[in-house]
Amino acid sequence: MQIRKSTLQDVDRMMEIYARARAFMAANGNPNQWGPTCWPPRELILQDIQQGLSHVCLNDQGRVIGTFFFTQGPDVEPTYREITDGAWLDDSPYGVIHRIASDGSEKGVGTFCIQWAYDRCGHLRMDTHGDNRVMQGLLTKLGFRHCGTIYVYEDRDPRMAYEKPGAHNILV
Whole-angstrom Cα distance, residue 56 to residue 101? Predict the structure, then answer.
C-alpha cells in the first residue's frame, strides 16, 4: 500500500468509499456518526483537497481503497482545545486524522493510514463516536489511549478522544 495526496480526479471514488463506510458503520451498531447527515459532504472533501490535507490509500495495483484527512502542527484542531472527563497526555504539536474510511476490499487499510500519519509527526490525536467500536478497537490496538471527551461543531454528540504521543513526550 501507499499514500498520496488526493486529487480532484479522486473525489467520486472517495465519495463511494464514504458511502460504503456509512453502510458499514450502520451495520455494525454505529448508525449515527455519519449516517443522518450523509457525512462527509462533497464540499468539505473538495476543500480538504484544495488545502492539501486530503489523502488516499492505494493498494498494490494502484486502486484507491481508502481515504483520510491529515494535518499537523501546534493546536491544529480547535475542537480539541476543550476536553472533559480527562485530559490530553501531551501538549506538544500533534497530528490529527479525520474522515478515515476504506472500501473494505483489503485488511489493514486503517492501520496503514494511521501509522503513515504517526510516522510523519510522532504524536497523533483522533476522536470517534461512542458507538464506533471498530475504530475504538483499532486505536487501542495501535497504542492510543482514551483521554476524555470532546465535542465537534457538526453536532453535539460527544466524541471519545484518543491520543498517541511519542514515547519521549508523555507528560507525567
Answer: 10
H/E stretch holding 13: helix 11-27
Q: What is the pTM of this model?
A: 0.93
- What cell does 86 get? 480527562
- Mean pLDDT to the nearest integer, 106-112: 97
Give the largest CA-CA distance in the chain. 46
Tell me the three state secondary structure of residue 5. strand
**103 exposed, middle or buried (CB, 10 Å; 0-12, 13-18, 19+)?**
buried
Which secondary structure element, helix H or strand E, spans residue 23, and what is its range?
A: helix 11-27
CA dihedral (153, 73, 19, 30) positive or negative: negative
- Let me know if 8 is exposed, middle or buried by CB neighbors in 10 A (0-12, 13-18, 19+): exposed
140-144 mean pLDDT: 97
Alpha helix stretches (DSSP H) within 39-170? 42-50, 109-121, 133-141
Is a pLDDT exceeding 60 seen at residue 170?
Answer: no
Residue 73 region by backbone torsions, left for phi larger than 0, else alpha for psi between -120 and 50, else beta: left
d(CA 41, CA 146): 28
